[in-house]
Amino acid sequence: MRLAPSIPNHSPPISETNKPEKVCIEVHKLSLQLSGKPILHDVSFTIPSLGITSLIGPSGAGKSSLLRCLNRLYDDWKGNISMNNTPIKKWHGGADVLRQFVGLIAQKPSVFPVSIAENVTFGLPRQQRQQNQDELIQSCLKQAALWNEVKDRLHTPANTLSLGQQQRLCLARALALKPAILLLDEPTSSLDPLSKELIECSITKLAISMPIICVTHDLDQAARLQGQVVFMCDGKVIETGESHAFFTQPKRIETREFLRWSVCECAED
Amino acid sequence: MRNKIFILLVLSGCFIASLSSLAPIWFLWDTSWPFWSSYGISSLWGTEWYPFESLFGLLPAIVGSIWVLIIAMGVAIPCGLAAAIVSSEILPASWQNLLRVSMEVLAGIPSVVYGLIGLWVLLPWLQQHLGLLTGHSLLAAGLILSLMILPTIMVMALDALRLVPAEQREAAINLGLDWEQRLYRVLLPQAWPGIRTGMLLGLGRALGETMAVMLVVGSMDRLPQPIYNILEPAQTLTSRIGREMGEASFGSMHFSALLACGLVLALFASLLSLLAHRKSKQAHP
After folding, report:
1. Cβ under 8 Å to A: B residues 180-239
2. Full residue range of the structural domain in which residue A184 is found
3. Least buried of A108, A159, A223, B196, by fewest C-beta within 10 Å?
């Protein structure tokens, strides 16, 4: 039997003033089909303007697909996704501009075959890349908890870094674009415990100033990250709630089963 | 004991392979020695080639080869790369395969067929549209060659582009890079080693192609007037060897001069390969 995860208190507490009030992202009746197969079905929820939202659920629940809809990697969906009251399909400047507003970190780190410093500034426009970006590089690497490990070798190839360091470099690279929202697709699933802890720590600090949506299979991680939890199964949202209440007093039977057994059998509506 | 035999076999194989890469150069050097010893290096810039008057200037054929190579590569590289990019990044998989198969069929057509296509289609077209006397010209040879090397460049570039990991493409998309930036900053730099190999193979074929070039180049042993006039009939090193080797008696100075043309061609190809390799090492140390 799987017990509900314990909730350690290493994340900074969300103060009353930081409490999410302003709705930043709104997903309304989102449906997605890929190659004729339904992936998401009438998904609706809201993401607070600050803090972490963990997307949990069994494999194939549609969590990663949902993230890909949010930055329009998947663009052929029905329903509505709004960010700051602007439908993302009508985003000024199109999908490329939206993707700079919404940073996405993939499950498997993918650094470009250039130096560490060049990787950080890779997404910047050419004019900015040609200027001295030392401060930006330092600040982003510090935010990603990588600066101390690479400060003496910024001009060495990025692929000489370990997998955990590469993932943090990907985080720094996304942060260099100053995104307003961060999407993380199982960012620590293939990493060692130390790298996992460093990334969780960075995410927690970043969540003070921006909304972060994190897909994870690790229920302990979802509990550690606190914030809001969205539980998905078979392309539907089953339950959402504040982390502590979600793990200690789940409302739906499917949620309780998932927290106990890591399985989910959705009741047909 | 078995290990020793195995190591000996591997070392012998390595020795034979190294030797075989130098053997053609040595053979050409040895057989063309009578020519070099009689006419010296100055024959490289001699402009007259009349074997019956013992005049063996190599410059017109060298200039012809260079022009044909420039035209062929100048047409085939951009077209092949563009076709590979469109095929890899835009076309659906079924069209991609169709294009690839058609390119592979094109690569398998014997060179003499390309020569005949040049004779029957390209020369009359050039004659009519550019007002040439017969259509035989460096331009015609270059264009036919470009058609011949296009499949090699396109298929190699396509394979190289397809080998760029999907994660890299997605990482670039996630950073908000548009299609053009993804192409110039992620896809082409990472596919470059494969593209370069395709270009070198194409270059090798373009330099060494004889039959098709011989049929359309005009085989005129003189320098183009002016030197950049690619609309004149001319001669290349390969077409000269192909056309005259049957007439030259074995062991004669003419025979030796033709082998000297072969040596110049081989050294030229090796030099270009080395330069490309050096450039590539500078770009990707």
Report:
1. 185-186, 189-190
2. 23-261
3. A159
Rounded CA-CA distance A210/B196 in Å is 45
Specify the number of domains making up chain B. 1
Residue B23 domain-assigned (yes or no):
no
Residue A188 lies in a domain: yes
B175, B189, B190 ranked by CB distance to A173: nearest: B175
The pTM for the full model equals 0.80
Residues 6 or more apart whose CB falls under 8 angstroms from that of A11 comprise A204, A224, A225, A226
Residue A12 lies in a domain: no
Alpha carbon distance A253, A238 (integer Å): 10
Cis-peptide, bond into residue B226, ω within 30° of zero = yes
CATH code of the domain in which B164 resides? 1.10.3720.10
**H or E element at residue A233:** strand A228-233
Q: Pairing state of beta strands A51-56 and A228-233?
A: parallel
Residue B107 located in a structural domain: yes
- Separation CA A246–CA A238 (nearest Å): 12
> What secondary structure, in 3-state letters, does B262-281 show?
HHHHHHHHHHHHHHHHHHHH
Chosen for mutation from B167, B174, B186 (greatest number of chain A CBs closer than 10 Å) is B174
- A171 within some domain: yes
| A133-178: pLDDT as tens digits | 889 999 999 998 899 999 999 999 999 999 989 999 999 999 999 9
**pLDDT bucket at B123, cuts 50 / 70 / 90:** very high
- Whether residue B15 is contained in a domain is answered as no
Question: How many domains in chain A?
Answer: 1
Chain B residue whose CA is closest to A183: B174
- Is residue B146 within 8 A of residue B117, CB to CB? The reply is no
Shortest alpha-carbon distance between residue A123 and chain B (Å)? 5
Q: Do A112 and B168 touch (CB under 8 A)?
A: yes
> What are A's interface residues with B at a Cβ cutoff of 8 A?
71, 73, 96-100, 103-106, 108, 110-113, 122-123, 170, 173-174, 177
